[in-house]
Amino acid sequence: MADSFGRKRETILVVDDTDFVLKVVVAILKGASFVVLQADSGPHAVKLAAEYDGRIDLVLSDVKMPEMSGPELGEILKRTRPDIHVMFMSGFSGGDLLVLNYGWAFIEKPFVSKKLLEMIDVVLHTPDKSQGTRHFDTRKDRAKHAGGADAEGTEDDAA
After folding, report:
1. Rounded to the nearest 5 degrees, what angle is found at the Cα of 27, between the Cα atoms of 23 and 31?
2. Residues 38, 49: contact at Cβ < 8 Å?
3. Which of 1, 25, 35, 104 maximizes the CB count within 10 A of its CB?
4. Residue 95: per-residue pLDDT
5. Which residues lie closer than 8 Å to 153 by C-beta, 6 or more apart?
6. Apex CA 138: angle with CA 16 and CA 140, to 5°?
7. What are phi and psi of 133, to 5 degrees?
8. Per residue in 74-111, is it b (16+ CB within 10 Å) or e — as a string?
9. In the chain, where the domains are located
10. Which of 35, 39, 57, 36 is nearest to 47 (CA)?
11. In degrees rounded to 5, what are phi and psi of residue 8?
């Protein structure tokens, strides 16, 4: 699908089991002219992706959900849609998030819309061959590609 200027509109599948978060993220992305699909669980997202004929450029999923975790969802979708980019969001912190081992991007909740949109732009438009592999990647929600020299960042530069 293209916008009025002929540019391709990217499609994002948003998955979160918290209704309020899902509605807010969908509104942010629609306001930024993305085509947005939404699901309230991993199994619902798998079904939606299987039934959707178009390209899905990014899955943006909560990490911890009942029935199926975000990383499990990411693995399933990468098998059926190898070109899909994967990005996670979570309000849980403490270093127990293994999603970074896959080279998948992560943003910590709560976040502001500008930060979310910047991170999505980096994920969608920066070639990253490690997406979906089991290589360790220390990226979190810091813009490593935006001129930053330190991929891990420090507490001082946290948002």
Report:
1. 175
2. no
3. 104
4. 47
5. 140, 142
6. 40
7. -100, 175
8. bebbbeebeebbbbbbbeeeeeebebbebbbbbbbbeb
9. 11-157
10. 39
11. -70, 130
Residues 6+ apart with CB under 8 A from 43: 67, 68
- Closest CA relative to residue 37, chosen from 28, 21, 19, 49: 49
End-to-end, the C-alpha distance of the chain in Å comes to 34
Helical axes 113-125 vs 19-31, angle rounded to 10°: 70
- The CATH homologous superfamily for domain 11-157 is Response regulator (3.40.50.2300)
Which three-class secondary structure state does DSSP give residue 102? helix
Judge if pTM exceeds 0.85.
no
pLDDT band at 92 (very low <50, low <70, confident <90, very high): confident
What pLDDT shows up at residue 10? 97
- Cα separation, 61 vs 40, whole angstroms: 10
Angle at which helices 70-80 and 42-51 cross, to 10°? 20
pLDDT value of residue 132: 55
In this prediction, residues 44-70 reach a mean pLDDT of 96
User: Encoding tokens for residue 117?
Assistant: 């949109």
